Amino acid sequence: MKLFLLATTISIVSFVQAQQKTDPTDNFTIEGAVKKGLTISLADLAGYTSYSIDSMVVTNHLHEKKRTIKNIKAVLLKDVLSKVEIDAATPKLLSEFYFACIASDNYKVVFSWNEIFNNELGKTIYIITESDSKAAKASDDRIAIISPTDYTTGRRYIKGLQTIRIERIK
């Protein structure tokens, strides 16, 4: 009986966590190992170079299609991150840094400094400013990041971006 109650409790907790809704965000902060933190708003993103993408398929960890995002306008995450100065004693140490992107529901994804600034991948990690012909401010997913070259795009599709925390591996 105790085992049954434990299994039932775990199932209910898992179900509730899976149903958790991501709150949309209108800005995010870049903090951590930086000389000066920065807050970026939706309005600020309009000042960056915009890229158009016809469509992207969002897949889960099993490669199952979850949705298709169409008519996308986006800015590069790399361009936004380049506005902060990482607190590194030498450029050689930059290879030890990573970026934890944290959503309003506490979902987290990670990119390394080398993925973003020393790899072709950095040219394809986007902050979505418009999708499905709607501006980000009208989207329930705002602010969203996606890495369309990932094999399973949903793994690093973050909605409701709240914080980008820059840290150094120690």
Question: Which SSEs are present, and which pair or pack?
Answer:
Elements: H1 2-18, E1 27-32, E2 38-41, H2 42-45, E3 51-59, E4 65-76, H3 77-81, E5 97-103, E6 108-112, H4 113-117, E7 126-131, E8 134-135, E9 144-146, E10 161-168
Parallel strand pairs: 1-10
Antiparallel strand pairs: 1-2, 3-4, 4-7, 5-6, 5-10, 7-8, 7-9
- Please tell me how large the radius of gyration is: 18 Å
**Tally of helical segments:** 4
Distance between the amino and carboxyl termini? 46 Å
- Mean pLDDT across all amino acids: 88
Strand content: 35-45%
pLDDT < 50 stretches: 1-19
Shape: globular
* Secondary-structure element order, N to C: HEEHEEHEEHEEEE
Number-wise, the strands total 10
Helix content: 10-25%
The chain-level structural class is: alpha+beta
**Looking across the biggest beta sheet, what order are the strands in?**
2-1-10-5-6
Give the biggest beta sheet.
5 strands, mixed
Tell me what the structure shows:
This protein is 18% helix and 36% strand. Strand 7 and strand 8 form a beta hairpin. It contains four helices and ten strands, in the order αββαββαββαββββ. It has helices at residues 2-18, 42-45, 77-81, 113-117, and strands at residues 27-32, 38-41, 51-59, 65-76, 97-103, 108-112, 126-131, 134-135, 144-146, 161-168. It is globular and about 45 Å long. It has a five-stranded mixed beta sheet. Strands 3, 4, 7, 8 and 9 form a five-stranded antiparallel beta sheet that branches. With 170 residues, it is α+β, with helices and mostly antiparallel strands. The model is unreliable at 1-19 (pLDDT under 50). The longest helix is centred in the first third of the chain and has 17 residues, at 2-18.
